[in-house]
Design brief:
four-stranded antiparallel sheet, alpha/beta, 15 strands, seven-stranded mixed sheet
Length: 482
């Protein structure tokens, strides 16, 4: 079980005394810890500091900490056992989300507008046709066991064809079908990384990747992104100085910044990674979501095949409900990943795989409408934010699903807390980094209809005014994304 000491938790709590609802200090402290749990910055089953240790770090009475811990236990956000201390949990009603700390929404079944997750709805009519075609093909699979550890041959062939079309020649034997991109990354970690190994990451980065590294007991090596993208010299220096076992990069409409690595940057990154012999995971989750840009050839084109795994899936460009992802690598690595998968999950559902193959074949017809709608939504949200919070700096990404907003003030966590009052589910900037960075940042998805986004911008502005009206909190660590 991981643990935090009083000083570490105090740093994460920031201005807790001013950020919660009015009431006694213990209630505000309990609310602040609860938010850290729901926002994913305090992982489940983390041992909390002793009462005396936390009281000293926060400069409050031990009675206040004792009462806060009692409140957390009473509402299901903490548990204790004699001799084992107190650790974080979720209420029983939230058991469905307990497997992932990426849960900035509460377990109360509320109808808050979800601006924390970046996942569009399905293209209903087109996907209905895709599933109809899949069901027509199902009878020929019924006489078999239905188990396909590596994935259905037709789906592996369809995935391989998409890579080949993009300039990365690929055979079906170089593809492993997974239950989404996240499983693909977890398989790489289980096959490549040992506890204590360093893993180089962009900073900020995808929060579930950070969680996966922590579960694997790996040590993140964050390399800051600049406003223009990847600092190749900084990446090269980190590779030399830390000798990471693995690198995890998102070069295509990076989450959360929306940045796109151009061809020279990809070549330079590949040179540094190849020189250091670092195994590289290239996350292409958003590669199909080009709104105003041409996507260069895959980063894997520049990297040695034996030390490169490219992961992707259908969640963002087609529909998250398919739960189909993949890993592309050399055949020996694919066999290693399949062996790792066999210990936890021996096959993906046949119907979903058939549907995914059909959707990939129809992608030239499906994508244009999706991209056109996302373009409208992005522009509408940017315009609404410019009106409602003109002091914010909102960079317009050339693709992807999110805006990485600079609020100008270190109030992200307070803004998330205030957002609950206005019916919003928000994800604080620190969720996308390590060591509490990005308190000036807020990630907002443009995955809702235009009218919803325009109304949401007004609510976000109200929450921002509420958050900034609170007394100033101590300065957080420097936001390294310029």
């Amino acid at each position: 079980m991981r643990s935090v000491n009083g000083r570490q938790l105090a740093r994460q709590l920031g201005g807790w005394a001013d950020a919660g609802d009015p009431g006694p200090a213990y209630s505000r402290l309990a609310a602040a810890v609860r938010l850290l749990v729901l926002d994913g910055r305090l992982a489940l089953e983390t041992r909390l500091p002793g009462e005396r240790d936390l009281a000293h770090a926060l400069d409050v009475s031990r009675t206040t900490v004792t009462a806060a811990y009692d409140a957390l236990r009473r509402h299901g956000y903490a548990a204790s056992r004699q001799g084992s201390g107190t650790w974080t949990t979720l209420p029983a009603s939230a058991a469905g989300s307990a497997g992932s700390s990426w849960a900035p929404f509460g377990p109360d079944g509320s109808d808050r507008l979800d601006l924390a997750h970046a996942a569009p709805e399905a293209p209903t009519r087109a996907l209905r046709d895709v599933y109809a075609a899949a069901l027509e093909q199902l009878p020929r699979h019924l006489p078999t066991s239905g188990y396909h550890l590596f994935g259905l041959p037709e789906l592996r062939a369809a995935i391989a064809a998409t890579f080949t079309e993009r300039g990365l020649p690929t055979t079906p034997e170089q593809v492993l079908v997974t239950a989404g991109t996240q499983q693909a990354f977890s398989l790489v970690l289980s096959a490549v990384v040992d506890p204590g190994d360093r893993v180089l990451i962009d900073h900020p980065t995808y929060p579930n990747a950070i969680d996966a590294l922590r579960r694997a007991s790996a040590r993140p090596v964050p390399v800051p992104l600049t406003s223009d993208g990847w600092d190749v010299d900084a990446v090269a220096a980190a590779l030399r100085q830390t000798a990471p076992r693995l690198a995890y990069l998102i070069p295509d409409f990076h989450n959360p910044t929306g940045l796109l690595a151009d061809q020279p940057t990809r070549a330079a990154l590949a040179t540094a990674l190849t020189r250091s012999r670092t195994v590289t995971v290239v996350d292409e989750t958003n590669v199909d979501l080009a709104l105003d840009a041409d996507v260069p050839a895959p980063l894997a084109c520049h990297l040695p095949g034996a030390s490169t795994v490219t992961i992707g899936g259908t969640s963002k460009s087609i529909w998250g409900g398919l739960r189909v992802g993949w890993a592309r690598a050399d055949t020996q690595t694919i066999r290693r990943l399949a062996a790792a998968r066999a210990t936890m999950d021996i096959s993906s559902p046949v119907v979903e795989q058939l549907a995914a193959a059909e959707a990939l074949h129809r992608r030239p017809d499906l994508l244009p409408a999706t991209l056109a709608e996302l373009r409208l939504r992005r522009d509408a949200l940017v315009s609404a934010l410019n009106r409602q919070v003109p002091q914010w700096h909102v960079r317009v990404p050339s693709g992807g699903l999110v805006l990485w907003c600079d609020t100008g003030l270190a109030v992200s966590s307070r803004l998330v807390a205030a957002g609950e009052r206005y019916g919003l589910r928000l994800a604080a900037g620190p969720r996308f980094g390590v060591d509490g960075a990005f308190e000036r940042r807020l990630r907002l998805p443009y995955t809702h209809p235009v009218d919803v986004l325009e109304n949401a911008a007004g609510l976000v502005a109200q929450a921002f005014r509420t958050a900034t009206a609170m007394p100033s909190a101590p300065e957080p660590p420097v936001d390294t994304f310029a």
